[in-house]
Specification:
six-stranded antiparallel β-barrel, alpha+beta, Thrombin, subunit H
Length: 121
């Protein structure tokens, strides 16, 4: 199946883009946030790399830094899928937003509509 067929089934439009983000397991309050870079973003979730395996349905606190915003977008999310990358020890994580403010959701919607796509690496 090609990527274009997969894209058509998505509920929200996605924007390819590399933006800094932090994430941590919601159940581990004393755990330090881990840094990463997004691969793509929609108002429904974010895809990013992780240097460790995260179990499916794990709840994460995610902070995403978009250009020109004074504060990060914050959301509680769940891991929808995870796959090992072919090279190295990293994983790619598909993350679905569960709790996000209406304001932050609107910021993402507007950002996706107005920003030119950044190249994905």
């Amino acid at each position: 199946m090609s990527d274009s067929n997969f894209e058509e089934k998505r509920r929200f439009p996605r924007m390819e883009g590399r933006f800094p983000l932090k994430y941590k397991d919601l159940r581990k309050a004393d755990e330090e946030s881990r840094g990463s870079i997004s691969k793509n973003l929609s108002e429904g979730g974010v895809r990013f790399r992780s240097d460790r395996f995260i179990s499916l349905a794990c709840r994460l606190v995610v902070e995403l830094n978009l250009p020109a915003l004074p504060k990060p977008i914050k959301a509680i999310s769940k891991v929808a899928w995870i796959r090992k990358l072919p090279a190295g020890d990293d994983y790619e994580v598909g993350n679905q937003f569960l709790e996000i403010t209406r304001e932050d959701k609107n910021i993402i919607q507007n950002f996706i509509k107005t920003e030119p796509e950044t190249p994905s690496l």
